[in-house]
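Researcher: We're teaching a course module on how sequence relates to structure. For the next exercise, students receive a sequence and then see the predicted structure as C-alpha cells, so they can try to spot secondary structure elements on their own. Here is the exercise chain.
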Amino acid sequence: MAALLLLLPLLLLLPLLLLLKLDLWPQPRWLLADLAFAVRALRCKKALRDRALAAAAADPESPEGGCSLAWRLAHLARERPAHTFLVHGARRFSYADAERESNRAARAFLHARGWAGDHGGGGGGGGSGTSSTEEGARAAPAARDSAAGGETTAPPLAPGATVALLLPAGPEFLWLWFGLAKAGLRTAFVPTALRRGPLLHCLRSCEASAMVLAPEFLESLEPDLPALRAMGLHLWATGPATHLAGISNLMSEAAAQADEPVPGYLSAPQSVMDTCLYIFTSGTTGLPKAARISHLKVLQCQGFYQLCGVHQKDVIYLALPLYHMSGSLLGIVGCLGIGATVVLKARFSASQFWEDCQKHGVTVFQYIGELCRYLVNQPPSQAERGHKVRLAVGSGLRPDTWERFVRRFGPLQILETYGMTEGNVATFNYTGQPGAVGRASWLYKHVFPFSLIRYDVMTGEPIRNAQGHCVATSPGEPGLLVAPVSQQSPFLGYAGAPELAEGKLLKDVFCPGDVFFNTGDLLVCDKQDFLHFHDRTGDTFRWKGENVATTEVAEVLEALDFLQEVNIYGVTVPGA
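Model: And here is the predicted structure for the students to work with:
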C-alpha cells in the first residue's frame, strides 16, 4: 500500500511530462509568467470594454458621451483632478488642467467650424444638438464673414475635417490633439523634419484642411507657404503673431475661449472603426503613407502600460517624438489609460537623463534601442546610481546593449515589445529574456493570435503547399509574422489610393477565405517559445527608430549632379 502511495504522484505527473516531451506545454520556467500575463491581458481587455460601454451609455450632451479619448480625460479630470498628468520643463499640469486646456482648444476649433451650439461657450456642457448638416449650412455664411473681414480665404472646417500638427513634443501638442478629438475633427501627426515635396504629399494624402505649426519652424517653411496657401489650408501657429500674413496665433484664440466641456456628441464616432487620426509611416516608394488609426486602436492603446505592469503611482519618462505611435499612442494614451504622470521631453539628452530621473522621481522609462545605447556609451556619473527607475519599456534594444544597460544601471526590468503603427499584432517580452521581442506560447497566442509562416526571400512571397495554403515554420526557422484580421484586430489601410495597401493582406493563409495582415517582418521562434527579430522584407531599414525606405535615400543622393547612378544596400556597422 505504501508503495502505491509513492507511485501515485509519479503517475499523476506522467501526462504533464508527456506534454513537455512533445513541446505541447510551455516550458515550466516560464509557465507562471505566461499565466500571469494572460490574466493581466484578459483583465485589461475587460476594463477597456467597460470603458467603451460607459462612453456609449453616457449622456451625449455631457463630455463623457464622446469618443474614448475625450471620455477618459473627462473621467480622470473628475476622479483625479489634482494629480499631475504632465511635467514639461518647469511646468506641471494636472488632469484638471489638461481637461480645461483641451476644452479651450476644442472651442477654438469649433469656432473655425462655424459651430455655435452653445453660443460660443460658457454655458457648461449643454449643446444645441446641431447636426452635421445644420453645421455645414451655418459654415457657409461664417466663411463669407471671415473672408469679408480679411482674416482668411480658407473655408471653415467641415465636421470630420483633418487638421495637421507640425509641432515638437510639448503641452501644446497634447492640448490641440485632445481638443481636435473633442471637436470631432481628425488629427494628422506630421513628422517635424518634412519640408517641400514630402510635406505637401503628406498633407494631400490625408486631405488636410488646416495645419498648426510651431513658430520655430516658420523660417524653414517660408518657401512652402505659397503652395500651402494654394491648397486652401487654414494656417495657425502656436506662438505670437508673425510677420507672415495669413497665419494667426491659435493659442491666443484658444485662451479667449471658455474652458467648460463641449458636448460629447460632437466627437462620438458612428463606429469604433472610424478613422480618428493619421500617423505617417515610411513607404516603399520613399514617400510617407498616412496610416489610418481608428477609435478602436486608440482605445486599445489605453491598455499598453497596464499590460506592461505600470501603475497609477508611476512616473513615466517620455522623450520620443509625438508624431510617432510610440510617443503618442503608447506613451501619452497609455499613460492616460492608467492615470499616471508623464515627464515629457522635446529632445532626448543622454547627459541629462539620470539627473531628470532623480529630479522627477521617474520609475518607468520608454525607450527605443538607440536611446539605451546612448546611455551606456556615456561616461559614469553619480546620478546614474541614485535613481528609482524600475522598468524600461520599448523596442529595438540589441542584446549586447540590453546586458550592458542592466548590468550598469540595474536592478531594473527590461520589457521589450514589437508592434507596427498600422498593424494588428503586438508582442511583449514580459520575462526579461535578453534579445527576445516577445513570447509565442499557446497562452499568449490565445489572447493575441499570430503565426510565423515560411517565406521565400528570393521571390518575396510566402511559401505555399500543394493545397495553396501557407506553411507554419519550425522552431529556429525564420518566418513571416502574420496576424488574422478580425473585428477586434482590423487593418484599416492608408489614406489615398487602395493600392498603397497592396501586399499588406494575405488571403487563404491556412484555410479558404481567411485574411491575415502581413507585417513584412521576419521573426524566429526558438524552442522555448521566445520570439527574436530576424530581418525586414522589402527595401526598408530602421535608423534611430525610424523606418526608412532605400528609395528615399536614393532620391536625395540622385539630386546631386555629380552622381550618375545610386544604389542603396545594407551593411553591418560595428557598435551601431
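Model: If you want an answer key for the exercise: The domain at 96-122+153-294 is CATH 3.40.50.980 (Rossmann fold). Residues 452 and 479 are 5 Å apart (CA to CA).
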